[in-house]
Design brief:
With about 350 residues, the chain is mostly beta strands. It has a four-stranded antiparallel β-sheet with strand order 1-32-31-30, with no helix packed on it. A four-stranded antiparallel β-sheet has the order 2-3-4-5, with no helix packed on it. Strand 8 and strand 9 form a beta hairpin.
Length: about 350
């Protein structure tokens, strides 16, 4: 049987393991920054220096492009009906996917927006950011329907680069300086605080209700809620990302040396350490069923998919002409999108095709 090269709908040659390439000569989106995929896998959103671009995932067709200031971060609502974009000069926009336009525009006083996240019910979202002045390091809880601030989430002394809602929306967590701060997920009222040994750079909630954080000094922390004694372990290497498994049994932690750790959720005991890349990890993402783990680094290597039970690599994705800069996955883990320094998006499936 002869092998025939695979091409996309527009005749562009597809590399090994690719489904589609967005951002080729026909789809190029200049100076990409920020990436998200809708929960139903239908839409891919990316931010650019000039605004937001929405693509149809199945065909690579651009649905709409809208001007805005430079984008730092994007997030789809749980229903996929809305998209948050945020970036320079403290501007947050809410986009309606059905309307193809903004349905809300919010101005945060001073600084840049660095992180946003929707509540699980889609009724609220949290934002975090920073700036040169102390007063610009803020977190805020917003009402989606009214576009009004519910509460200022005060206390951060450094830029806020990671925010998250708990699975039941009871809590909001913010990572900044040497504290992991919790707030009421509906009112924004201050809650428990965990003092960490070094700056907290990543945060995620576990299925069992605990909140996990990682610190740039190498410490991983587990904070059982509502206010029990924390567990802190020193992994002896700078950490940069954290993700809890959907089953709640494991925690994946990305490190500055290109490795990732798999830890037991209850005591943060080390199950496995895997050499994944040759440069610092930027992302660790679980598949929806918890049977695979996706990693991405700052270097020139593409995404890699791993079997957590064995630490074996399933897929080594290559295809960008230069470093892959961001990655996101659908909720069920069946679709993965990477964004590269070559201003291209590549869509992959969970079998590496």
């Amino acid at each position: 049987m002869s092998w025939e090269p695979r091409c996309d709908l527009y005749g562009d040659l597809l590399g090994n393991k690719m489904i589609a390439r967005f951002g080729s000569s026909r789809f190029r989106a200049q100076d990409l920054a920020g990436l998200a995929i809708s929960p139903d896998d239908r839409l891919v959103a990316c931010g650019t220096r000039y605004g937001v671009v929405i693509w149809k995932a199945t065909t690579g067709k651009m649905l709409f492009e809208a001007g805005s200031r430079r984008i730092n971060t994007l997030a789809f609502s749980p229903s996929g009906a809305e998209l948050l974009s945020a970036g320079k000069s403290g501007v947050i926009r809410l986009w309606g996917m059905a309307e193809g336009r903004t349905v809300g525009s919010l101005k945060v006083q001073g600084g840049d927006v660095l992180a946003v996240a929707f509540s699980q019910d889609g009724q609220r979202f949290v934002s975090g950011g920073g700036g040169a002045e102390k007063g610009n390091r803020w977190g805020r809880l917003w009402d989606v329907e009214t576009n009004e601030v519910i509460a200022d989430l005060k206390g951060a002394q450094q830029d806020i680069g990671s925010v998250a809602f708990s699975d039941d929306d009871r809590f909001v967590a913010i990572a900044s300086d040497q504290k992991l701060r919790l707030y009421d997920g509906k009112t924004g009222a201050p809650g428990p605080e965990l003092h960490a040994p070094s700056r907290v750079v990543g945060v995620d909630f576990g299925a069992e209700g605990a909140v996990y954080g990682v610190c740039e000094g190498g410490e991983a922390v587990r904070f059982p809620l509502p206010d029990e004694n924390p567990t802190i372990v020193d992994l002896k290497v700078g950490l940069c990302s954290v993700a809890t498994s959907p089953t709640g049994s494991m925690v994946a932690v990305g490190a500055e040396d290109g490795t990732f750790f798999l830890l037991r959720n209850l005591d943060l005991g080390q199950m496995r350490r895997v050499v994944a890349h040759n440069s610092p990890l930027t992302d660790v993402i679980w598949s929806g069923d918890g049977r695979a783990l996706l990693t991405l680094s700052r270097g020139g290597t593409g995404p890699r998919l791993w079997a957590p039970e064995t630490g074996n690599r399933i897929i080594k994705g290559e295809g960008h002409e230069g470093p892959a800069q961001a990655v996101c996955a659908s909720d069920d883990g069946s679709v993965v999108v990477t964004m590269g320094a070559d201003d291209r998006l590549i869509l992959w499936d969970d079998e590496g095709r």
